[in-house]
Amino acid sequence: MITEDDLKHLEWLTENRSRNQRSALELYRILKLHPMMSHEHLAVAHLMVGISFSLWRAVFLGDFRGPEHRDGDKEISAGAEAFLEIIIRDNAIGFPQDKSTREWTFGYYVGNAQFRLRLIHEMDPSILSAFKITALPPVKSDLGAPKWLWEQCQSALDEAMQRLGVVLSEPTGQKIYP
After folding, report:
1. DSSP secondary structure string, 41-105?
2. C-beta separation of 39 from 148 below 8 A
3. What pLDDT is recorded for position 86?
4. Mean pLDDT by 10 residues, the chain (178 residues)
5. CA–centroid distance for 16 within its chain
6. What pLDDT is attached to residue 91?
7. pLDDT score of 74
8. Residue 146 burial by CB count (10 A; 0-12/13-18/19+): exposed, middle or buried?
9. How far is CA 95 from CA 63, 90, 100, 103, in A?
């Protein structure tokens, strides 16, 4: 039987999967409209592709309680061990394996997105002016830490893509923000 929490998760999943897909479409549009962008901007766009993919994968894995839960660290460790066992035993990972070890794989994909967002900030602060995420929400959130973290990364990607699009649309190619 489906619970109220299950319904809340499905609502969050549907809303944020769509959000990520719209973001991926905008990134695709940027790449198609600006095939001659500079090497630096192309590197940023490629990092964004990786962020988009990581968040697309992670959104489907966000239905767990996270490390703030009493047994969260044990669940994450169990997921990591199971993930390694699958790699060793089967030499393959697909979505069913990601889902069955989601307490670990969610963190992997969101961590990859965070890493790439930090690289974009370091490469060009005008594209992503600041990027700092704490491990847990600053206040008690109904979402829980995993979903809150996902949303923070998606918002940062959306901001960076919007700014990249503006920079690339300038006739001079000069940055227009502080």
Report:
1. HHHHHHHHHHHHHHHHHHHTT--S--TTSTTHHHHHHHHHHHHHHHHHHHS---HHHHHHTHHHH
2. no
3. 93
4. 88 96 96 93 97 97 67 81 93 92 92 95 89 58 76 94 91 50
5. 11
6. 94
7. 84
8. buried
9. 14, 14, 9, 14
First to last CA, the chain: 53
Write b or e for each residue in 83-92: b if 16 or more Cβ atoms lie within 10 A of its Cβ, otherwise e: beebeeeeee
The pLDDT of residue 177: 44
Q: Any idea which residue has 């994968």 for tokens?
A: 57
Tell me how far CA of residue 148 lies from CA of 59, 66, 93, 140, in angstroms: 11, 11, 26, 10
The per-residue pLDDT for 178 is: 43
Distance in angstroms (rounded) separating the CA atoms of residues 93 and 141: 32
pTM over 0.90: no
CA atoms within 13 A on the CB side of 132: 2
Question: For residue 176, what pLDDT is reported?
Answer: 43
* CA distances, 3 to each of 69, 124, 142 (Å): 19, 45, 16
User: By C-alpha distance, which of 52, 60, 51, 50 is closest to 94?
Assistant: 60
